[in-house]
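C-alpha cells incoming
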C-alpha cells in the first residue's frame, strides 16, 4: 500500500511554468508505476503522464506532449511533473496516482491506477 501527497499547485499566467511534486509513503516505492491525472470542472478525469517503476518509460496525454515532463526519484520516494508553456485549458485539479507493477513495464495510458492523492489545484490565467 502507498499513500500519496501532492504539492506545488497554484496560480500562474498563461505561458508560465509550475512543478508539481508527489511524496509517497509506504514500502517498495520502486515497484510502483506512477502517474498524474487531472480533472477540470464538469469534465472527466484524464490521464496526463505516467512513468514506469524505474523511470525507464514515460507516457503522456496528447494534449501535454512536448510541454510536460514526468520524472521520479526512487531514493526520495518522489514523483514530479514539470509543466511548461501552460495554457488556460490546463486548469484543473491534478492528482498523483500509483499502481503496483513490480519490475514490469505496461502501457500506463491504459492501466488502472489504484492509489490516489488528494489533489492539488492548478489555475492558469489568460
Amino acid at each position: 500500500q502507498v499513500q500519496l501527497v501532492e504539492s506545488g499547485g497554484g496560480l500562474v499566467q498563461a505561458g508560465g511554468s509550475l512543478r508539481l511534486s508527489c511524496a509517497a509513503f509506504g514500502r517498495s516505492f520502486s515497484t510502483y508505476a506512477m502517474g498524474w491525472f487531472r480533472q477540470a470542472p464538469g469534465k472527466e478525469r484524464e490521464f496526463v503522464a505516467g512513468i514506469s517503476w524505474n523511470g525507464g518509460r514515460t507516457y503522456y496525454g496528447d494534449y501535454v506532449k512536448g510541454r510536460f515532463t514526468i520524472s521520479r526519484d526512487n531514493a526520495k520516494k518522489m514523483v514530479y511533473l514539470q509543466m511548461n508553456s501552460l495554457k488556460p485549458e490546463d486548469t484543473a485539479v491534478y492528482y498523483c496516482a500509483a499502481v503496483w507493477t513490480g519490475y514490469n513495464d505496461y502501457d500506463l495510458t491504459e492501466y488502472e491506477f489504484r492509489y490516489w492523492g488528494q489533489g492539488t489545484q492548478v489555475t492558469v490565467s489568460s
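note: The longest strand covers residues 18-26.
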